Amino acid sequence: MFYRHKVLNDHVIRIIDKLNVCMYLVIGSERACLIDTGYGYKGLRAYVESLTDKPLFILLSHGHIDHAFGIYEFEDADIYIHEEDLQTYKVHSDLEYRDRFLKSHGAALNDDFQKEREMVFKTIENGQVFDLGDFHIQAVHVPGHTKGMMMFLLEEERIMLFGDACGANTMIMEDCSGNLSDYLRSLRDLKKMDGLYDMIYRNHGTFVSEKSLLDNVIEAVEKVLDHTDDRMLLPESMQKMFPHDPGKELLSYCAVSSDMAAGGIRYDGKEGNVLYRADKAV
């Protein structure tokens, strides 16, 4: 079995795939939404349909291999992604890269995974609201991790799905990532929505964070841009994790000193950090 799940409340189910990345199934009175689709292990559609019989559409937070590649069993569903992440999705579709990334996480691109096919996308707009009947999801554009990175506000439950946009170790390390000045602006805009949610859910690690996470990441980015961060050089294996232009400098750093061997836990005990490539620190 490639999937397991946890019911979070009457509307929201967290589905976790074999490599411990999660997605969220949101169920309303009229239809359901799957937010992200994981690495693409087979059987996702059947698993979702065992949890709901509502008509389904899909929202992708971004185009990375570990969040967007379970879509191939949903060719008849509406699948939404931000326009600026179509290129991210295309880059991560490269079979050699997918296999290399999976091997770095203890798997390989084999028959366990859905067969790749041409997909048609619809685009998400910042502030767009999706009506599920008695439940609403608002899309929030937070460029940084990728230029088309989205968060999703589950309005009635007062939950913000931060995804990979802002986390324990937000990675700004790829050609398709935004620069840190733009990222800081997007985080400050997000801060203005503070009164609309009480809980933060993410896609990796513990999956849950305190609201202090956002302030801690803002602080880390400010330090980078002020040239006062710890600027701890990341291991070469981590620097090469993402696709990049071979002509660009790859040196990447951690904003606040952390124990990378222990999952990047900050030495000061706070949650929220930024791993950034040198050329993104503008």
Can you put this structure into words, describing what you see?
The protein has helices at about 45-50, 65-70, 85-90, 95-105, 180-190, 210-225, 235-240; strands at about 5, 10-15, 20-25, 30-35, 55-60, 80, 120-125, 130, 135-140, 150-155, 160-165, 170, 200, 210, 230-235, 250-255, 260, 265, 275. The N and C termini lie far apart (about 45 Å). The strands form 4 sheets. The chain has a 7-stranded mixed β-sheet. Strands 8-9-10-11-13-14 form a 6-stranded mixed β-sheet, with no helix packed on it. It has one domain: Ribonuclease Z/Hydroxyacylglutathione hydrolase-like (Metallo-beta-lactamase, Chain A), CATH 3.60.15.10. α1 (about 45-50) links the parallel β4 (about 30-35) and β5. α5 (about 180-190) packs antiparallel against α6. With about 280 residues, the protein is α/β, with parallel strands linked by helices.
Distance between the termini: 44 Å
As residue ranges, the low-confidence spans are: none
Mass-distribution shape: globular
Largest sheet, in brief, is:
7 strands, mixed
Tell me the number of helical segments per DSSP (H or I, 4 or more residues long): 7
CATH class: Alpha Beta
Mean pLDDT reading: 95
Layout of secondary structure:
Layout: E1 3-7, E2 12-17, E3 22-27, E4 32-35, H1 44-49, E5 56-59, H2 65-68, E6 79-82, H3 86-92, H4 95-104, E7 122-124, E8 129-131, E9 136-141, E10 150-154, E11 159-163, E12 170-172, H5 180-191, E13 199-202, E14 208-209, H6 212-225, E15 232-233, H7 236-239, E16 252-254, E17 258-259, E18 265-266, E19 274-277
Parallel strand pairs: 4-5, 5-6, 6-7, 11-13, 12-19
Antiparallel strand pairs: 1-2, 2-3, 3-4, 8-9, 9-10, 10-11, 13-14, 15-16, 16-19, 17-18
Helix pairs in contact: 5-6
